[in-house]
Fold:
Amino acid sequence: MRLVGVSKVYGDAESAVTALDNVSLSLPTGSFTAVMGPSGSGKSTLLQCAAGLDRPDRGVVVVDGAELAGGTEAELTKFRRNRIGFVFQSYNLLPTLTVLQNTTLPLRLAGRRVSRERARTILAQVGLADRLGHFPDQLSGGQRQRVAIARALVAEPAVIFADEPTGALDTRSAREVLELLREVVSAHGRTVVMVTHDPVAASHADSVVFLADGRLAGSMTEPTADAVAERLAHLGDVVAAGV
Amino acid sequence: MLQLAIRSVRKRPGRFVGTLLATFLGAAISMAFNSLHDTAGAAGIDDTSAETLGLSAGVVGGYGTLLVFFAVASTLTVNVRQRASEITLLRQSGATPAQVKRMIMGEAVLVAVLGTALAIGPAMLGGRLLLDMFQETDQVAPGVDHVFGPIALSAGFGVTLLASAGAAFLAVRRATRTAAGARAPRARLRTAGGVLALLGGAGGVAATYAIDPAEPGLMAAPAYGAILLSVGFATLSGGLLRTLLRLFGRPIAALTGAGGYLAVHNTRRRAASLAGVLMTLVLFTGITIATICIQVVESDAIEAAGVGKSVEDKNVETLNLVVVGIIAAFCCVMLVNSLYAATSYRRHEFGGQRLAGATPRQVLTMVATESGLLAVIGLFFGTVAGLAGALAFADVRLEAGLPGETVLIWLGTAAIAVTATMATSLLTARRALRTPAIQAVAVAA
Ligand SMILES: Nc1ncnc2c1ncn2[C@@H]1O[C@H](COP(=O)(O)OP(=O)(O)OP(=O)(O)O)[C@@H](O)[C@H]1O
Ligand SMILES: [Mg+2]
Structure:
């Protein structure tokens, strides 16, 4: 997965907010990357642009060897379906579908064969084997998040993006979710990119990319929670110094 | 809380356009017809004129007002339901259910008063035009002046206020209970209301048989019957919709793909909340079929009698044509109005589906399938309600079955109903799809 010179500006001329400023980033296949930075630094925007959910104003996004071109919404959607899984911070499950139906939805929408067996297996992996017929409003936040992850996995995408997947979870469910993401990388060779505010969560990743004011502000490999926290604390100073 | 209501209306007037339109049109119609009562009651009016006006106001003012009541109430229900998330927010920031209720009801009353006040001018004009029509057809003496008085005003304010406040009360009660974490209240009250309406409707239709066939007010009974049957059917249609989907859900989804699959599940889960939109659809179909058929039968009856049309018959015929036109148009506007409100509110939902991988076309297929289902159910019940009224009238008035024109009338009504339903929801959905999915999801969240 590769971003080259990606910029995104929100709003019109007077109230323009530069959410991303010429970001270039290359993540190898089969890596687990955490994206960190202060609130408003452009993490969600970065993820959405990389996942084809939003269009960057400038720059190129390459996912799984193919360029995410402009095109119509339908073209972008079809591109995403087979290559990209997205775990939304607010889950984005459809309230009128059950857990199992939500999970198989991407396959149905893509017109692919719906393998309930596979969906059941994935849901069992995320610990929801006994919740298949429940509706989202009958689940806890952590359970919903796990359904969202199962849904992102079902189409076997090359890249999975997750926006604060552990933001609303207690320590234990958070760890389960992180271990799940780790397994996706190590067992299936997928690429995972995760936004998080939590240094402990970031320490589960192979590397951390820091973002400040819409620009890259360094990275760290083999992160530990302490080192990440330390770096985050100094992020403001680094930006001020003009790096 | 009243201040909060006023502020809320002033700050976001766009949200109230739908209910304002409903109360405005409803009040205009009921006041225009009821002003004929005022006119008939004025001093120095001759007996024939007074009788003509009184009859017209009694028949049309009567069932027209009933129709307005249900149409306004269902529009209000559709609109207040959309504010569930706002109500949840208010509750979470410390508002008691009573405060929320006062605010939402305050808004509803405020909008109803405003809508009715705005309708006074048009209603005066409409009433005068009606009177002109009676005078041109020599049914009312030329010297009679139009009076817009207490009966018109109390009918206008009464019906819109009652319908608005009542619907808002019920909708907000449901919303606050759901927000409080309780399970959505069982629809016992709704079921009871639906059964009552059906009984009332059956009673209205049956009452036709108890009335003298030559009585000029005869058609009031089957018209009331058709309205109440429509309301009852619409209220209870959720169960039928669910049964239908249990039987045909799979074939529908197989035919229409993933879009239809979503439509089937949405409709199944939300069958009950579709009642508001369905009611306007059933009312439109039912009342249009009933009144046009009744008019055709009435003309046939006069022809069969072999005499020239008497003043009274002419009166009834003019009146009925006007009624059919105005009332059908009103119902059609209400149908479009509530469908527009219901669909434009789904922007957030559409956004979620698009983010989950649905193309805009799949979303539109979903909306089309849902509207199609709605149209089928609405047409079915509207036809039953309308024909029940028409059949009773034909039986009593002519001792005959339905006239041959019924098929044409049905086809025309069905074509308009289906076109209005599909066009409104698809155009509104297409507009909603213009917002990028990410923003559509963010806005309402
Ligand atoms: N739709 C939008 N319209 C205007 N400005 C926006 C929009 N979305 C984001 N922004 C702005 O762009 C900047 C980056 O937003 P973004 O959501 O990417 O931040 P973030 O790093 O994800 O923050 P957080 O950690 O709080 O989620 C912010 O300044 C935000 O105000
Ligand atoms: Mg964010």
